Amino acid sequence: MLKIWHMKQKQVAADAAEGPAKRRVTAAQLRAQKDITEISLPSTMKMDFPDPDDILNFTLTIEPDEGLYRGGSFEFTFAIGSQFPHEPPKVKCKQKIYHPNIDIEGNVCLNILREDWKPVLNLNAVIVGLQYLFLEPNPLDPLNKEAAEDLKNSKDMFARNVRSSMQGGYVRSERFDDVRKR
Amino acid sequence: MAVGYDVEKWKYLRRVLERAGPFTDKDSFDASMVKEALKDVKILVIGAGGLGCEILKNLALTGFKNIDVIDMDTIDVSNLNRQFLFRSSDVGQPKATCAANFIKSRVPDVNITPHFCAIQDKDIDFYMSFNSIICGLDSVEARRWINATLVNMVDWNNPDTCKPLIDGGTEGFKGQSRVILPKMTSCYECSLDMLTPRQAVPICTLATIPRQPAHCIEWASILEWPRVKGDLKMDTDDPEHITWLYTTALKRAQEFGIEGVTYTLTQGVVKNIIPAIASTNAIIAASCCNEAFKLATNTAPFLNNYMMYTGNEAVYTYTFEHERKENCPVCGEQNEPTNVTIRKDVKLGEWIEELKARADIQLKRPSLMGLGKSLYVQQPPQLEEKTRPNLEKLVSELVGNGEEVAVSDSALPFSLRLRVLYE
Ligand SMILES: [Zn+2]
After folding, report:
1. Alpha-carbon distance A178 to B45, whole Å?
2. Model-level pTM?
3. Which CATH number fits domain A24-174: 3.40.50.1820, 3.10.110.10, 3.40.980.20, 2.40.30.10?
4. What are the pLDDT digits (tens) for B188-203?
5. Which of residues 21-60 of A touch B (CB under 8 A)?
6. In this structure, are residues A94 and A102 in contact, taking their beta carbons and an 8 Å threshold?
């Protein structure tokens, strides 16, 4: 082992490591920093960092300017764990909304947040995916089964339900949060 | 107590130790030192489970005299079929302590020290005190932690800071053993993409059309637990929690006419348990200890550097040299921090301008972060606004001596690590 050591040692620059103990930034933070500083958000989205020193936990607000969810302001929490990017970020919707791919607990059904996540994907891909859910709600991947059925049965009825739910109204016996953009 | 390498019982081992073989590295082999090696070498075993029991037994019987063992778990009744250092009276007791006691009772001249805690509870000085480290873990997270810790310990001015890591792992009939020389050969992180990811089921399948008993269990743990229990953290070692998941999953399975949800399956699914095969553990542990022996004594060349074993159909092993990744986030040269020396009275804003002026790094709009601290982040705007006041502060107020600062910039294909040293 010593032999390899001396060989490698010669390859390493003379100033490699001296002085006070090394304290390194974690791989998860390093990657999150790169991802976050490369995100360029359209005017319909914004990010907020409750604790600016903690870039691993933040919120994303999406305010669609087209589609059935236009006029709403939807907030998601992002939690990036220590195994990122080998594990996807945990994303939840903070409000109770009527959407075929988001249940009333805020769980989100987006393939790249679970079964199709790969470490080469970045946070931007997740954000684009979330935005797409509001433009094209998908009745074939239902997390809120009733909403998905409504969409399959009648797009008009579904659109009416979306409108009233977004104003804090009821759809059947379920009351939703008022998510109108202020 | 006198450690008797001259006694009769070590006669045959001595013959192996003292003779150079055809593959012995002539430069590093010294028959007189070899004899002392096993006596002096201090080895750390991480994990006292299925692999750990085998490893500890092998090391003690090989003649290693100084062994430490660390494990944060206690003994469960289901461990007893293969973790042979434990008896039913040990159930509930720490694995590390029971394993150490058992070894001590059978091989009295071994100094074996148990540590009943998480590996993260120990500091650099602890890991520095060993000659090499053997891992018999089932957790990727723990392996990544110890790997990164050992890589970061390497100081090129002192060869003793490089601790060989022998990593064993098993999954059913398959396993692997490998030797990692931190900073010199491919590390655990370099090979992370070789892991076959657990095939996840789409969350909407769990929510709407479960087809298998495991789908019902995952529904209970992923969707129902947070809904019903709120912020209460699920503890997969707590029988009450498992019982709740089991009954919840069972009800759902009945609703959908699915059979096969049991308590054991529930435990298996939420803990991601792959059935352990005792002989796979024995084979992999034997290989790990073989490497520890060779590293300690120089009697034969050690594994370079990855041995995979498959026992599903007959026996297949393949040994190859896994290559280091240039851009490995843990050991890659590309990610090696560059030392920068700065004055204590330099403001962050001034320092950033200095960095931008440097021809060797070519930065345009750098964002800087320290250890869990945002120094100045240019994107997104909300973060820029919140970190802008830092530009007026002294770097020395924000970053400790020797601490790392990560720089990201659209002009850089990777994040640059800078290690700040003050004049
Ligand atoms: Zn590496």
Report:
1. 56
2. 0.78
3. 3.10.110.10
4. 999 987 777 677 888 8
5. 21-25, 27, 29-31, 33-34, 36-41, 46-49, 52-55
6. no
